[in-house]
Amino acid sequence: MTTFYNYAIRQAERLKAMGRTRTGEIYAITAKRFIEFCRNPEVTFSEIDTPFIDAYEAYLINRGVCRNTSSFYLRALRRIYNMAVADGFASQRQPFSHVYTGVDRTPKRAVTQGDISSIYRVHLPPGSPVDYARDMFMLSFCLRGMSFVDMAYLRKRDLRNGYITYCRRKTGQQLIIRWEDIMQKILRKYPPNRTQYLLPIIQYEDGTERQQYLSRLLYVNRKLKKLARIVGLPPSLSMYVARHSWASIAHQRDVPLAVICQAMGHESEQTTQIYLSQILSNRIDEANYNILQDL
């Protein structure tokens, strides 16, 4: 009889072989987390029923996992279960009918134009880890909020005739960005990469490129927390903040929504609106505050 864990890991490896590395990693992590709860690597699909999944959700919550993260694990687990149903290894008993698999809206993180200037201008020891993190943050912002994974995989040949041309790894959409002086000034701080890649993120072409990117992302985000303390910003400062802040500042400068959508490589304006929802909320709160002052 096929066990849940063996089936899930096989699917994870299949997805990785198809080039869907991130999804494969999610399946593998989901399977391992579920087996930690089960304490039995031989659990079968016939044992996975509604009370079992309800207990798993409670387990995640009791361990301090936030609701969105719990929902993330449960959605991935549900996908694996449904695949097993389609493959004939499980019967459809709807075991996820009582657990939360939605996505709660969370406050979007963005900093102001003044904050960006403070980050850029604050004196840091040249070559220090925080200085490096600041440079990666600023490059992301200057490159229209380019995601860290796209920055990591930028190749030297992508920079030609004063423009960066690349395809977003998330959507495959091609984007073209003018290479500005500030970008070149930051890049000049670092010796030329020994690999085909433009930025000092992936340093070796030995099959560990993805691990290098993920490790560097964690490293940069940790150092950005220290940078936040130095410049007096909330500790939530991260590479994601650079991307969201570019969209927010562009919107505040009356750049049309369609232009921001295209600039960031979003597949639809609805995605861009999600990025900007917090700005609109803040404007409403400010208007309400001004109204109340006249009471």
What features would you describe in this structure?
By secondary structure, the chain is mainly α. A hairpin with a 2-residue loop joins strand 1 and strand 2 (163-167). It has a three-stranded antiparallel β-sheet with strand order 1-2-3. Helices cover 57% and strands 4% of the residues. It is built from twelve helices and three strands; from the N terminus they run αααααααβββααααα.
Short structural summary:
This protein is mainly alpha-helical. The protein has helices at residues 4-17, 21-38, 50-62, 67-86, 113-121, 129-142, 148-152, 181-187, 209-231, 239-252, 257-264, 269-292; strands at 159-160, 163-167, 174-178.
Secondary-structure blueprint of this entry?
Blueprint: H1 4-17, H2 21-38, H3 50-62, H4 67-86, H5 113-121, H6 129-142, H7 148-152, E1 159-160, E2 163-167, E3 174-178, H8 181-187, H9 209-231, H10 239-252, H11 257-264, H12 269-292
Antiparallel strand pairs: 1-2, 2-3
Helix pairs in contact: 1-2, 2-4, 3-4, 6-9, 6-10, 10-12, 11-12
Uncertain ranges: none
- Give the CATH topology of the largest domain: hpI Integrase, Chain A
CATH class of the largest domain: Mainly Alpha
Name the CATH superfamily classification of the largest domain: Intergrase catalytic core
Any key phrases for this structure?
mainly alpha, DNA polymerase, domain 1, hpI Integrase, Chain A, 3-stranded antiparallel beta sheet, 12 helices
